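Input record, target 12 of the design panel.
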């Protein structure tokens, strides 16, 4: 059940046990609504986190520059800042975890939020315990990725149909070495398809392969990204030569791929 932000939140119960973290993590909360901000701050504090709460985006970059922030919870409906642009900047410039907290809860908004680099997306109204659980989950995944990083330092480069996909640089270039901009989601999807060329991949398989979070996944997000990839690769959607649709199946990459 979601929290009614107009009344006293239901989770303010004497003696409630929220659990603690063995190492205190610092969470930055960016939320303009004072009632929601108070709920989020109280929830995370009860969950064992150190919390810095801001009412807008103006001071976010300064707070991050000071260091020590492990994850940001960002409302994308901020009055003074484009929340999506802020989310992208936080991820690209600081590399910390980001959870979007928003009143925009439809599928398209969730897809866009994840596309710009958020690790998770939670719609309002929300259950405070779920927010705490999602924060812990994202922090856990960040730690797991960091532990695996040395073993995965050597990333391959793939060549196909004049294209070069550099997994270490997360870049795609055409035959003239001109870079083509891909979102993180588009890159992950193309890497999943190219590295498993000539294999039919179901939508749920692709969702598992490209997802770095435990947020709700959507089949439509795969279709949207495939459409964008086809356009960027010049692959005719009516008669694709690289990414083919398999009826009642999923997708298959049929181009000849060389791994370097």
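The sequence produced for target 12 reads:
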């Amino acid at each position: 059940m979601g929290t009614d932000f107009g009344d006293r939140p239901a989770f303010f119960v004497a003696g409630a046990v929220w659990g603690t973290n063995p190492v205190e993590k610092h969470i930055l909360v960016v939320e303009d609504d004072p009632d929601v901000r108070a709920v989020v701050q109280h929830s995370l504090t009860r969950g064992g986190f150190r919390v810095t709460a801001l009412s807008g985006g103006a001071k976010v970059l300064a707070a991050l520059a000071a260091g020590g922030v492990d994850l940001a919870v960002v409302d994308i409906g901020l009055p003074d800042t484009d929340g999506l642009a802020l989310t992208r900047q936080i991820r690209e410039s600081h590399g910390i975890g980001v959870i979007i907290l928003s009143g925009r809860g439809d599928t398209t908004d969730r897809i866009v939020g994840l596309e710009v680099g958020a690790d998770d997306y939670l719609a309002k109204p929300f259950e405070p315990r779920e927010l705490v659980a999602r924060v812990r989950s994202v922090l856990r995944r960040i730690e797991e990725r960091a532990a695996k990083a040395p073993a995965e330092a050597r990333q391959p480069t793939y060549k196909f149909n004049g294209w070069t996909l550099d997994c270490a640089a997360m870049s795609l270039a055409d035959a003239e070495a001109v870079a083509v901009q891909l979102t993180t989601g588009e890159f992950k999807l193309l890497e999943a398809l190219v590295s498993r060329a000539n294999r039919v991949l179901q939508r749920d398989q692709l969702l598992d392969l490209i997802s770095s979070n435990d947020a709700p996944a959507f089949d439509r997000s795969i279709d949207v990204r495939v459409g964008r990839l086809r356009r960027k690769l010049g692959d005719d959607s009516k008669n694709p030569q690289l990414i083919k649709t398999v009826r009642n199946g999923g997708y298959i990459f049929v181009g000849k791929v060389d791994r370097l």
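The longest strand covers residues 97-102.
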